[in-house]
Amino acid sequence: MRLAALEIFTVAPPDPGMGGRYWIFPRLTTACGIVGYGECYASTVGPVAMRAVIEDVFARYFEGENPENVERMFRRTYSSGFTQRPDPTVMGAFSGLEIACWDILGKARDRPVWALMGGRMNERVRAYTYLYPLAHHDSADFWISPEMAAEAAAAKVEEGWTALKFDPAGPYTMRGGQMPAMSDVTRSVAFCKAIREAVGDRADLLFGTHGQFTPGGAIRLGQALEPYSPLWFEEPTPPDNHAAMAEVARAVRIPVATGERLTTKAEFTQVLRAGAATILQPALGRAGGLWEGKKIATLAEGFGAQIAPHLYAGPVEWAANIHLGVTCPNLLLVETIETEFHAALIGATIKVEEGFIAAPSGPGLGIAFNEDLARAHPCDRAGLHLEMQDDPCDWQNGNAFAGGSPE
Are 376 and 143 in contact, with CB atoms under 8 Å apart? Predict the structure, then answer.
């Protein structure tokens, strides 16, 4: 087999954009006609610039290569331009192309991807979901209402979900490394209290912060949340300072999770060595793809850490996360976004049933990518996949983070 052609779908999900402003899906075709799909989780540059990066990486390191040679293509890309270091943009391009290679390999052998990467450790994987407004909720008020969050949590638990994520601490600002407003601490405690009372011990609470706080600020917030026993305290400090995060991990009796903004085993190794987190959250569309994700999971296993693959993207990365999770003895959870558009893009081939996802049985990723639907929703948005606000923390009026749903 030889990789012969690349097509890129840049898709804008319908408002309110659950999963970002756009998703980027590379389609690879071999000379013998086998097609594979991947996804690039990229938020550092806009979609036009990212398309150029993907095309460049494909032309330099993938075109004409056997899709089996994942390690060779990784080393070529990782070391490109005399870098040989993590680069979120280049590795984001590589990741999507690499996932597509695994889809091709599985189809060529008529086997699921997980069967080519160590086999089935888990018959099913446990999923978690963000809390989103119910039909009768005011979408603007929801993100600052503990009562609405508790109602949404109870509804999800009735559906079978056993892990629920929320992030009321805010703000989502580029001025990360700040002290939280006292009103944000109070609201965060109120959220945890209301949700815990609504679901009891039927579900784990997953508390997110998006790397907003100084170690001292994160410790104040984390210690205030301890009575409600969240399963994790996600990215309490900016992701580039492992020593700071380790300081929080030592002071707060909630497991620290991190990883959505990290790429390759190089950065995850630093997290583990520093003792910064015991739950790693690689986003496979950025972290280096499936094979690199497997290496990260193995490193974590050696440190007694677990993995919970991150998803703030489209359904192809989600499918890759599930295949990785099926193979890993130290899997904790996989993040899931349930929308009609997510499901339709992959032909509703992979489903959550009562909070769990069965190991996919179809060849490759086991998805039926809907190219017509992808072409019908081209990206026409000017913003990045995700953006940080310029405004600082508002200590007078409080802050609100609208659940990562950009319009």
Answer: no
CA atoms of 83 and 294, how far apart (whole Å): 23
Asked if 39 contacts 319 with a C-beta cutoff of 8 angstroms, the reply is no
Which top CATH class is 115-364?
alpha beta
Contact 128, 161 (CB under 8 A): yes
**Closest C-alpha among 383, 319, 379 to residue 39:** 319
**Percent of the chain residues past pLDDT 70, beyond the cut:** 98
If 0-12 CB within 10 Å is exposed, 13-18 middle and 19+ buried, where does residue 125 land?
buried
Rg (Cα) of the chain, in Å, rounded? 20
Three-state DSSP state, 35: strand
User: Length of the chain, please?
Assistant: 407
Distance between CA atoms of 30 and 335, rounded to whole angstroms? 31
Six token digits for residue 245:
């995060």
CA 34 from centre of chain:
28
What was the pLDDT predicted at 403? 60
pLDDT digits (tens, 9 = 90+) for 321-374: 999 999 999 999 999 999 999 999 999 999 999 999 999 999 999 999 999 999
Q: What's the rounded Cα separation, in Å, for the pair 230 and 258?
A: 15
Tokens of 287: 């972290």
Q: At a CB cut-off of 8 Å and minimum separation 6, what does 102 contact? A: 36, 70, 113, 116, 117, 289, 290, 291, 320, 323, 364, 365
pLDDT, tens only, 209-218:
989 999 999 9
Residue 352: closest CA among 332, 307, 322, 326: 322
pLDDT band at 65 (very low <50, low <70, confident <90, very high): very high
pTM for this model (two decimals)? 0.97
**Which residues are bridge partners to 334 per DSSP?**
127
C-alpha–C-alpha distance, residues 298 and 133, integer Å = 37
Can you say whether residue 158 is alpha, beta or left, with left for phi > 0 and alpha for psi between -120 and 50 degrees? Answer: alpha
- The residues, any chain, with a CB within 8 Å of residue 301's CB and separated by 6 or more, are 328, 329, 330
Element spanning 316, H or E: helix 315-327
Residue-wise pLDDT for 97-118, tens only, equals: 999 999 999 999 999 999 999 9
Q: What is the pLDDT of residues 177-235, one digit of tens each?
A: 899 999 999 999 999 999 999 999 999 999 999 899 999 999 999 999 999 999 999 99
For the chain, the average pLDDT equals 95
Rounded Cα–Cα distance for residues 237 and 221 (Å): 11
User: What angle is formed at CA 252 by the lines to CA 284 and CA 19, rounded to 5 degrees?
Assistant: 30
